[in-house]
Design a protein that fits this description.
This protein is an alpha+beta fold. Helices cover about 25% and strands about 35% of the residues.
């Protein structure tokens, strides 16, 4: 596993580069703690190995890692996800009943939603709008998913709205 528990930059086909702490790697997916902007860690990102073009580590990543270690950011993988099986990974995400952020062809469009059904080649996702309103359910093929974001500040903020509204009903 290249760069395990280190900061690295990954290039995903059709998307901007992602920087993160490499937590785990499997046959189908790579798991990173996302670093969306200098020295800020924000959630997890799963990268589909099929679309991962390259993973690099240079002076910038080494310096970012030095700062994150000084900030005492954890570099350990505390959650166990099946990164060798896409249907199993999506089943785990479905069972958590939390929101996920999906990118498909490029990172200009993200889908936020909750996985409601897992099939052999695809899954059903109940989409969420930007004001935390439930939209339609869509069927998405696993092969189209390039990244999955989990527990980012944005996603957790929307989750708070949903949870607060659920507690009122």
């Amino acid at each position: 596993m290249q760069y395990l528990q280190q900061v690295a930059t990954v290039k995903v086909r059709g998307q901007s580069e992602l920087q993160g702490i490499v937590l785990a790697s499997g046959a189908k997916w790579e798991l990173l703690r996302s670093i969306p902007v200098d020295y800020v860690v924000d959630g997890l990102v799963f990268v589909n190995q099929k679309y991962l073009l390259k993973k690099t580590r240079g002076e910038d990543e080494e310096f970012a890692e030095k700062i994150l270690r000084l900030k005492m950011v954890s570099f350990e993988n505390r959650q166990q996800f099946d990164l060798d099986s896409t249907p199993n990974l999506f089943t785990q995400l479905q069972q958590q009943e939390k929101l996920v952020q999906l990118t498909l062809h490029d990172d200009s469009v993200n889908f936020i939603g909750q996985i409601v059904q897992v099939n052999r080649q695809s899954f059903r996702c109940r989409l969420l709008g930007v004001k935390a309103e439930w939209l339609q359910e869509v069927n998405i093929k696993y092969a189209e998913v390039r990244t999955i974001g989990l527990a980012t500040d944005y996603v957790l903020s929307l989750q708070l709205v949903i949870d607060s509204e659920d507690s009122l009903t």
